Amino acid sequence: MIAKIGRSSNLYGTLSYNNQKIEKENAEILLMNKMIETVDSKYSVAQLARSFEPYLLANRNTEKHTLHISLNPDPKDKVSDEKYREIAQQYMAEMGYGDQPFVVFKHTDIDRSHIHIVSVCVDEKGKKISDKFERMRSMDICRELEKKYLLTTAIDKVRKSYDKIFRPVNYRAGDIKSQIASVVRHLPNYYQYQTLGEYNALLSLFNITTDKTEGELQGKMQQGLLYIPLNEKGETAGHPLKASLFGKNAGLPALELQFAKNKVSLKGYSSKTKLINAVTTALRATISECEFKKNLVGHNIDTVVRRNETGRIYGITFIDHHSRTVWNGSRLGKEFSANTFNEHWNHYNPDISKTVEKLPKPSHKDDLDLTVEEPHQLFSFLNNDDKHEDDIAEALGGFLPEALGEDQEEHDFANRMRKKRKHGRNRR
């Protein structure tokens, strides 16, 4: 079971969203706690809101006072109304909202039932209820509820979705567009990169690359981006696909904004020093490119080497999966430029350039790699036992609605609420 906790300053909007479901006969009220009841058990938005008004009047300083929580069992779980009531009561009590007014709605308009809980996070004395470690506590409670009511464990399903997303493109399997989309749409939520080159280095782990395009539109030069599937050798393995097919965030303008944002957040980043130390140690301890890469893989760092047609290295990029950051060698320091690695590996392997001359030219200039490595499972270390496994459920549950069968209307509603808050701040 996945819990999603939303906060807003719009109590009426949140109640209205759920009430509209009732009017369409796609929802019903299962439980009311400390709410003002009506004789006929029918409630308008205004009637429901009256139960919360004394709490909001007691505290006018808390901007996001409204809680909108959804509890989502696995679609295979058959949960009775009585169980839903018990689950909602236990969840709210353990989260610290047991004495608050709240109303529980059961939604049935998609292929799985789930419940929504609307409440406020200020008590009757006007004190804001602590949300410290809220997500961690919520996930722990969900695990307890799964065991108590014999529900499907969310972690297993989310892991499967996670594995599906972070999987290299297999051009033989077909449906290239869908495979690329599953990577491109979600990668920015996990990794930080500052240039298109760094972005391409990361994409190369998934057998994908990009290529800039230029053209004239209505008398103005326009730049675009194509996504290209690759085979295991780094050669083009399918037709280029326009970035627009994968959503606005996959396009060049959105990526450039992301690059600028990441440059600010990575300035003085502490993990950069750890990466520099790891690369320095690996370079001193190895004499070949293959050994160097294997050494860094042991530290959860992937290395992407780019060579020209003569075999000379012109770029090297490090992908630190621990900090989830991508760094061109020159960005780490002059001592990690392409020349450093050319000189080091050529010193110990002087015949490497001769070997390159005998090889067929690659179809993509960035993808000539002479090393043969033992295959390793991409991103497997993100699921290490020393990492709280619920972090995965939290991360994926937050931005993978399709993985959990989320109501798209609910997803759109949450986005509209965020936009309203943003426009409200702008007007002020």
TrEMBL record:
<dbReference type="InterPro" id="IPR005094">
    <property type="entry name" value="Endonuclease_MobA/VirD2"/>
</dbReference>
<feature type="compositionally biased region" description="Basic residues">
    <location>
        <begin position="416"/>
        <end position="428"/>
    </location>
</feature>
<dbReference type="Pfam" id="PF03432">
    <property type="entry name" value="Relaxase"/>
</dbReference>
<feature type="region of interest" description="Disordered">
    <location>
        <begin position="403"/>
        <end position="428"/>
    </location>
</feature>
<protein>
    <submittedName>
        <fullName>Relaxase</fullName>
    </submittedName>
</protein>
<feature type="domain" description="MobA/VirD2-like nuclease">
    <location>
        <begin position="17"/>
        <end position="149"/>
    </location>
</feature>
